Here is the input.
Amino acid sequence: MNYSLTPVGHIQSPFKEKFAVPRQPGLAPSATASIALCGEANQDDAVRGLEQFSHIWLLFLFDQNLAKGWTPTVRPPRLGGNERVGVFASRATFRPNGVGMSVVPITGIRKKGRQVIIDIGSCDLVDGTPVVDIKPYIPYSDSITEAKGGYAAEIPDTLEVTFSDDARNLLLKQNDGAHKIQVIQEVLAQDPRPAYKKGKSDDKEYAVHLFDLNVKFTVDEPLITVSTIEAFGD
Here is the structure.
C-alpha cells in the first residue's frame, strides 16, 4: 500500500545548497531559520498553543535526494567515510522514504500578511525543504539521559576559521555582516569537506552558497581560511 504526504510548510534558512549544511541541528547556533506554513496548515488555529513549548520536532523530506533512491548501507562521515553501516543505523539522507527529523528551538510565531511563520533557532535544513509535520518536544518523554550514542556519542571536533582582510571587510560593510561572519564561522568550523579529505594535504579551494553569498575557502588543518566572498552569481 502506498501513501502520499503533503507539506505543511517550507524551511527558510541561510543554507542554499546541501554542501556545508551542519550534520545535526545546534552545531551552528547562529544559523537561525523559519518555517512558512502552507496550504490548509497555513492558519492561526494550526499553531494555537505551540508557544507553550520551547522546542519542536520537525519531520521533513530530503527532497533533493528522492530521485536518487537509497541503498541499504551507507558510509557515515563520523566513521571517516570508509566504514559501512546499515542505513537504519545512520541519519544518512538517502533513505527508503526520504524522511528526516530534527529537534529545533522555537523563537517566535508571527504573521506576515496571511502567512503564518514559525521562527526557529539553529537547524540543519536547506532553504526550501518541505516540512511534512511539526510536533512539540516533550522533555520528560523525549529526553533519555541514559541513551547510548553509538559511533556518534561525542560532539565532532571543529576547526578554527579565519577570514582574509578583503572577505571580512566586505561583510562588515553590510548591516548584518557581523551576524553573517558568525554563521560562516560556525558552519565552516564543522569542516564540510568529504570525510576522506580530512587529515590529508588539501590544496583545493571550496565554495559554499550561504545567504546570498558565494563563500570561498581553503583548508590547512586545523585552520580554515575564508579567502573570498562574492555576491552569489557574480
Notes: The helical segments are 139-142, 165-172, 177-188.
